[in-house]
Amino acid sequence: MHVSRIPLISRLPALCVGLVTVFAAQAHLMVAQHGTLNLTDDGVYMVLSVPVTAFHNVDDNGDGLLSAGELQSHHGAILAQALQGITLIVDGEEERLRGPLLSPTFGHGRPAHTAAQIVVTGRFPVPMNATRIQFRAELFGTGREEKSLTIRFNRPELNLQERAILSPDKRSLLLK
């Protein structure tokens, strides 16, 4: 069996191209209000589905959905709010999400080309010697069912998988 010895960081562009292809196909990368955090030797990789109503001043017509035009007009504002509302605190220092990608989730019982969720992906850098890692989310929607985020946290090297539910009352999760 051949094992690739190419560092993960050098494979990242190919991964991003693959993710963009998935987004272009409008596949559902993540269930609404769910996310995964994978802790590896070079960081925490995140995929998180956030309701459109968690973002302020981006839904121009007030229908609770994001049209392709609204996404185009407000992409920068959505990205800025995602970067502000999703953080990782490593040994007391806040880390910013690197390489963030936004993908609206279109379809299934909604008007054509409108999204109720935005999938946010990216990586937080984490040093190997980190002793305390905390994930914090501030992006919760306005609807009753949009006020929670179910997070699955994976540490493959320990064969460990945990699940937690974040809400406006419990906004953070201790990973390590």
Strand segment count: 11
Helix content: 10-25%
H and E string: HEEEHEEEEEEEE
How far apart the termini lie comes to: 33 Å
Rg, Cα atoms, Å: 16 Å
- Beta-strand percent range: 35-45%
Tally of separate helices: 2
Which class best fits the helix and strand makeup?
alpha+beta
Mean pLDDT: 84
Reported for the largest beta sheet, the result is: 7 strands, mixed
Low-confidence stretches: 10-27
Overall morphology: elongated
Explain briefly what this protein structure is:
This protein has 176 residues and is of the alpha+beta class. It has 2 helices and 11 strands; from the N terminus they run H-E-E-E-H-E-E-E-E-E-E-E-E.
Please describe the structure with a list of short key phrases separated by commas or semicolons.
single chain; 176 residues; alpha+beta; 7-stranded mixed sheet; 4-stranded antiparallel sheet; elongated
Structure, described:
This protein is of the alpha+beta class and 176 residues long. It is 20% helix and 39% strand. The protein is built from two helices and eleven strands, in the order H-E-E-E-H-E-E-E-E-E-E-E-E. The chain has helices spanning 8-24, 68-85; strands spanning 34-40, 43-51, 66-67, 86-90, 93-95, 98-106, 114-124, 133-137, 149-155, 160-166, 172-174. The strands form two sheets. Strands 1, 2, 3, 6, 7, 9 and 10 form a seven-stranded mixed beta sheet that branches. A four-stranded antiparallel beta sheet has the order 5-4-8-11. It is elongated. It starts with 7 loop residues before the first helix and ends with a strand.
SSE diagram, text form:
Elements: H1 8-24, E1 34-40, E2 43-51, E3 66-67, H2 68-85, E4 86-90, E5 93-95, E6 98-106, E7 114-124, E8 133-137, E9 149-155, E10 160-166, E11 172-174
Parallel strand pairs: 1-9
Antiparallel strand pairs: 1-2, 2-7, 3-7, 4-5, 4-8, 6-7, 8-11, 9-10
